[in-house]
Structure formats: C-alpha cells, structure tokens
Amino acid sequence: MLTISSGRKRMIALALLIAAVVVALLIVGLRRRYLRYENAYAELQPRTSEREAIRRFGEPAERRRCRPKPSWDGEPIKEDFGNCVEEFWYYSKISPEQWVVGFDANGLALTKYHFASP
To answer: What predicted TM-score, i.e. pTM, was given to this entire model?
Structure first.
C-alpha cells in the first residue's frame, strides 16, 4: 500500500492550486481579448484612422491585401468612398471568429468584416 506523507500532500495540493490559477488567468485573458475585439468592432466608424483602430483593437495578427469587393459590415461601399489598400486581421483564440478592418492609402478605415463559423 502506497502512503503519501502530509508534506507531499501539501506540495501536490499547492501544485494543483497553482495550475488552476494559471488556467483561470489564461481563460480570463482570452475572454478579455475577445470582448476587446467585439467592442472595438461595434464602435468602429468609417474613416477611423489606423492609429485609432490599433489603439482600440491592438496590433493586428496579420496584414493582408484587400478583398476585391469591399464592404462595410456586409454593405457594399460606394466607389467614390475610396480604395482599400490594406486589411488588418484579428483572430479569436476562443472561437472560430475573425474581425477585419480595411484602410485606404491615407490610413482611414473604409471596410470592416466579421467572420464567424458555426
């Protein structure tokens, strides 16, 4: 029969407690990032500067060329509104979602998309 000393039991309990705290902090951090993206996207207005978008969303995970048919939250943009030259991509780490903001040559937002898989 295997017996565990009280000192060893305390060490195991402490290790489990630390692991639980680390996991909880990780979950809280990921949830905060998700909410940051959701709120920044909801508040984003046309002609927001790149600098302001980065202040609200944070640095993008990826920068890409723009899509061929730009739109603002699903609504096609008018041709005289400008040409999208770069998109900032933000990815959720807790759900299959992406938020995308496109900017013109002057660094002003003119497209935004939210993609979510079921």
So the answer is: 0.77
